[in-house]
Design a protein that fits this description.
This protein is of the alpha/beta class. Helix content is about 20%, strand content about 35%. It is built from eight helices and 23 strands. It has helices at about 15-20, 75-90, 105-115, 120-130, 150-160, 265-275, 315-325, 335-340, and strands spanning about 1-5, 5, 25-30, 35-40, 50-55, 70, 95, 115-120, 140-145, 165-170, 170, 175, 190, 195-200, 210-220, 220-240, 245-250, 255-260, 265, 285-295, 295-305, 350, 365. The strands form seven sheets. The protein has a five-stranded parallel beta sheet, sandwiched between helices. A five-stranded antiparallel beta sheet has the order 13-17-16-15-14, with no helix packed on it. The two termini are about 35 Å apart.
Length: about 375
């Protein structure tokens, strides 16, 4: 959170919520005293601060009955929002985690906390599960949001938490819940509409897929044609649950922002390091994927570089060393740090023999199944 150029860093949440620092950022809604407003930045652009106003409200259709919840997300604003939700509405106790909490003490903390639900991005939940062997059988709910969910990842999550049911919902930090939670009858990453939210698709292709725009008619937060940064399409089919119509989420528009096993790959960060290496290569492409090693999941980044005249093995190693040391995949963690914590495998660097094909969009980062 930022005000007048000062940044409020991640600190102990109990002290943060109880202390006076939040009074500048949290207030009651003037039109509805049951609502709280929290002013935060988006946390994802790495550009100038964007002020976002989020209403804190009870979403009774999402996680009702949860006693102790582990929140797995990298955004300070999301963690703070949920802690405030629990504090002021008397909901479930929340343990808010981010990538910097992945250390040897986490298993003990989780055992003492004794959660019955996990809430957050699926890949992050799976990473935390590696530290929670003692609590997996007591977890009864997995509440997923923040990234698309593959069939393989869903099956792995249910195998890791054998007593849990899994539900997903589509939401954004700036507005909140954009759809109803998954009904169990639609394909993965498909959701029925909320009455106060309207979706549009900008510049749809032949399959009807394009950038998603959303408008909200909620009296607490009115939004008109907000660009979500995701691609998807709108379907009018009748569902066996009784609903008509749904939105299908395809993924991030432009592949410039990829969540990989708890790490975040950003195009502008790769471009920054590429400029540092401009004497070593002319162009690059990145492939990100999830790989399995036994029963564990790891992120794997393959960096393919091209230079007219070729790239020597010595320079390939230099490129690998620079990216490993200097590429940030979290606010304070480099690729080297993330590999050391067991989230990703070491970077692979390969040389392309021919220039990369030119496409209508200059897509450098891509996630593959």
């Amino acid at each position: 959170m930022t005000e007048r150029g000062a940044t409020l860093e991640r600190v102990d949440f109990q002290r943060l919520v109880a202390g006076p620092a939040l009074r500048r950022f949290v207030s009651k809604s003037p039109s509805n005293r049951l609502y709280w407003w929290v002013r935060t930045t988006s946390g994802t652009t790495a550009r100038e601060p964007i002020v976002v106003i989020s209403p804190i409200r009870n979403t009774d259709e999402w996680g009702a009955g949860v006693r102790r919840r582990v929140l797995c997300t990298g955004l300070l604003s999301v963690r703070l929002h949920n802690v405030m939700l629990a504090k002021h509405l008397g909901l479930s106790r929340t343990l808010a985690l981010d990538i910097e909490d992945m250390d040897g003490q986490l298993g003990t903390i989780l055992r003492d906390f004794d959660p019955d639900a996990f809430h957050g991005t699926p890949s992050f939940i799976m990473r935390v599960a590696d530290f929670a062997p003692k609590v997996r059988t007591s977890v009864t709910g997995l509440y997923c949001t923040g990234e698309t969910l593959s069939t393989a990842l869903r099956d792995q999550m249910l195998a890791r938490f054998p007593a849990a049911s899994l539900r997903a919902v589509y939401k954004c930090n700036e507005i909140g819940f954009l759809t109803k939670p998954s009904c169990g009858r639609l394909p993965l990453n498909s959701y029925h509409f909320r009455k106060d939210v309207r979706f549009e698709v900008a510049d749809p292709d032949e399959r009807g897929i394009g950038e998603l725009l959303v408008s909200s008619s909620s009296p607490e937060l009115r939004v008109l044609r907000y660009r979500l940064g995701d691609s998807g399409r709108l379907m009018k089919a009748w569902c066996r649950c009784g609903e008509i119509g749904h939105v299908e989420i395809v993924g991030r528009t432009g592949h410039d922002y990829i969540k990989l096993n708890g790490a975040i790959l950003r195009r502008e960060e790769f471009d920054r390091i590429a400029r540092r290496c401009r004497a070593l290569f002319d162009d690059y492409r990145v492939i990100a994927r999830i790989v399995l090693r036994g029963d564990r999941r790891f992120g794997l980044i393959t960096l393919c570089v091209f230079r007219k005249g070729g790239v020597s093995p010595r320079n390939l190693q230099r490129i690998k060393d620079i990216f490993t040391r200097e590429l940030f995949l979290a606010k304070t963690l480099t690729l080297e740090d993330v590999v050391r914590r067991g989230l990703l495998l070491p970077l692979l660097v390969e040389a392309a023999e021919t220039p990369f094909p030119k496409a209508r969009k200059d897509i450098k980062l891509r996630y593959v199944e």
